Amino acid sequence: MKILEAEKVFGEAPIFKEPRIIGNWVLWLEQRPKENGRTTALIRPWKNKDLAPQELTPYPIDLRTNFHGYGGAPLIAIQEGSDLLLTWIDHSDNCLWTRSWSFDDYDEQSSSFKLKSKIQPVCLSKKHNYSLAGGVIDLEKNIWIGLMEDDKGDHIVTYSLKKSDQNPNFIYSSKGFLGYLSLNSNDRKLAWIEWERTSMPWDSNELKLAKLNEQDNLIKTVVFNSQYLKLKGQISFFNPVWSQTGDLYVAEDSSGWWNLTKIITDANHEAITIFQNEWPIQAEIAFPQWVLGMSSFACVGDDVVGAIAREGIWCLGLFQKNGSIQIIDQPFNDFSGLNSYQNRLVAISSSSIISEGIFEIDLLDKSWEHTPASSLNLDTKKISIGESFWFIGSNKENVHSWYYPPLNSQIEPPPLLVKSHSGPTGMARCGLDLEVQFWTSRGWAVVDVNYRGSTGFGREYRERLRGNWGLIDVNDCTMAAQSLIVSCKADKNRIAILGSSASGFTALGCLISADIFKIGACKYAVSDLIAMANSTHRFEEFYLDYLIGNIKTDYEEYLKRSPIENVKSINMPLILFHGLKDKVILSDQSIAIKDELLKRKIPVQINLFENEGHGFKDGKIKVDVLKKTEAFFKKHLNI
User: Fold this and answer.
1) Which of 18, 263, 300, 411 has a CA positioned 20 to 30 A from the CA of residue 602?
2) What secondary structure, in 3-state letters, does 42-58 show?
3) Separation between Cα atoms, residue 539 and residue 528, nearest integer Å
4) Is the previous residue joined to 60 through a cis bond, with omega within 30 degrees of 0?
5) Which helix (H) or strand (E) holds 473?
């Protein structure tokens, strides 16, 4: 069987993000590995994938924000009569820009199209040291309303769409964090998510709702939180969305699962009705809020269409006014970025055999189209399909993973690659992952572990990581490997583990604590918890308090779990990769691990990349990393 080359895995296909429907058009963001990760906006007519899309933000424009360190939501698009109006944040100068195009000259019968620009780009904001993101447009007042982060905190600010070189107009400031602005244009109501500095948004936050008066000031603010809802525990809200009728929908986890809630308010917020548990399901309809711009559901008339995660598998559900949920028949099982207009829905979707792409569906006749990001067409017989694999972890608790059997294996039982998602609050998903296929096409089995603490399995499962990072995740990855060895699905002498960032921390912990692993590979791994606690950015300032404990009272525990303090316990080959521009995890940490292993003559290799930061973006670098990892594994495992 032909193996999947590294160049086909990385370096060619762009990454699609944040799609939306603008009238009869589909617009999305495209991050391009061939252009060092530059992100641009593209548009084409609805369900017309054979037409080449038009790039609206050509080089050197780079649509990226730095909000809370992880960014997201750099662009807003809205139809104004027969015009398309865009506003965006350009990574090159961190400024807010705008430009408009005309839809007038589009011929539906033509085999090509080109929207005509009405004005050249206009910079609305002055150059500054703060971050902007997550905006909405109020056409009635011709203003951009968005989020701003500076050294004093988070704010809601406005800019006129008719002026250039402006200072921000502050309308709200928070002592904590802000995210996910949502505007009801008809009633001039603004909703957003807010949380304290000591919390992460998926643990505890508040939903706030306010009116914009004629002076664009916020009035009549209502706060929805545990106290308002009379709950004993914490609550996490996600993704407030207004319906066309003025109702507010939001995902919240008061039931223990991120489910939908509907909130109806009158014009002055004096009469408020909350409909919780209208659609109770033991499944999730939300994502952890690492970045802005994510969307897990969208309003369609009186109904809502949402992405539902049950036991690691996503489906599309129509949440109907009568309280029923209709599962929409279609072949995909991984969704993100849902957006709707009238009876149309767009999303990013993939399945076990279809790579990620733009998914467009007419919700009346259920007809759909899918435009893959990658031009690579794999024979379905040459794809390893993930199998849901539950095993018993510590405390006799069930743990989930995805097991990918090897293709064309020359060794029985096969070598096993153990991997897990980063975050650590995150989820291993089941859509087609070409990096996994790279390994299975070479005869490897792969297990992708949803260790306890992962999202998608309810709050109780998610909270099992509280105070246990570096313990429970390490144990679960170890037990996944052990369970597969016992099941004769893995060669006990050829068990490798791979990780990056937070999952790199887990991988190093596995190499330190368990001799079941024979080799490892880590990209920009978290290794020094003390350094991380003392230097982490504002968004994650107290994350380690949740994951480990308070550094003052639990200092010894920080040392005990820091891989850099326990390198002496690593006795197997290790390959390391790090960007020299990484400001989240300094490359010095990987270098220190390499030096310690060299002293003890443990096989080690380090690869440093001059122009990469935390999370490699250059497709050529990604290809290089994958090739070098495979070569290192083959050499030291005698494959």
Assistant:
1) 411
2) EEEECCCCCCCCEECCC
3) 18
4) yes
5) helix 472-486
Calpha distance 274→415 (Å, rounded): 53
Tokens representing residue 472 in the block: 């429970």
- Give me the pLDDT at residue 1, please: 60
Q: What are phi and psi of 381, to 5 degrees?
A: -75, -15
Confidence (pLDDT) at 335 = 97
Q: Measured between alpha carbons, how far is 627 from 624 in angstroms, rounded to an integer?
A: 5
pLDDT at 45: 95
Q: Which three-class secondary structure state does DSSP give residue 493?
A: coil
Phi and psi based region of residue 540 (left: phi greater than 0; alpha: psi -120 to 50; beta: remaining): alpha
- What phi and psi, each to the nearest 5 degrees, are found at residue 83? -115, 155
Q: For residue 538, what is the enclosing H or E element?
A: none
Q: Which residues of the chain have pLDDT under 70?
A: 1, 11
Query: pTM for this structure?
Result: 0.94
Neighbours of 233 (CB within 10 A): 11
- Retrieve residue 313's tokens: 């598998």
* Spatial distance between the Cα atoms of 116 and 103, rounded to a whole number of angstroms: 8
* Stretch (H or E) spanning 573: none
What's the order of all strands across the beta sheet hosting 272-275? 237-242, 248-252, 259-265, 272-275
Cα 480 from Cα 402, distance rounded (Å): 10
Cα(133)–Cα(72) distance, integer angstroms: 7
The 10s digit of each residue's pLDDT in 441-476 is 999 999 999 999 999 999 999 999 999 999 999 999
